[in-house]
Amino acid sequence: MYKKLRGSKDHKEEEDYNEQLKSFFKSTIEHLKLEPYQKAYMTGRWLDQMLWMDKKSGAMRNHHQRIRSRMIFASASVPLFVAIDAKCTEPWESLIKLAIVALSIFVTVGAALDEFYSYGDLWYTYRKAAELLKTQGWQFIELSGRYREYEKHSEAFEYFVEDVEGIIQRDVEVYTTEGLKRQEEEKKSNPPERSTRLDAPSLTDSSNTRNPK
Questions:
Q1: What are phi and psi of 58, to 5 degrees?
Q2: Which end of the chain has the least Cβ crowding within 10 Å, N or C?
Q3: Which NCBIfam families does the protein's record reference (predicted)?
Q4: Statement: residue 100 has pLDDT above 80
């Protein structure tokens, strides 16, 4: 069943794939011998977080690849326009020079945006977290890997929760670090303006203190 889901991902939209995956895991969880609150945790916490991170990974990938592909096209076009510019006369010469400048600005801005928002790094981070959660879920369902020593899902559930929360916590820490990094970059790129207000002379300033006669 899972192989069929993986195979259909190449032929359908990611949203459809996530819905199929969600439905499949919900059905599987319902058949596990767990307490209702344990099943609720698996669907409301583990499955929800895994699907959310998978979706975020796809969004970050799309942003990263969209910007990078356009930057590659623009960068490759610059030498072509330079070569054409050498053989052109007015008014085409001015237009081509303008196009070269515009393409150069586009490449610079694109690279800055991609680096500022860390699309590539976030793509990797969300992808890694989603796959780790998925792996933990499959190992728990099959009682394999870390959970192979347990005979019942109820016995392994406590450790499953620890693993899931550990993965989520690490993801939050990475996201927080990226947010702080962007704030620092904003401060560096937009330094606070210096105040032009003149401070009042200090009463203890020696230059303003009259010496007694």
A1: -65, -40
A2: C
A3: SLATT_1
A4: yes
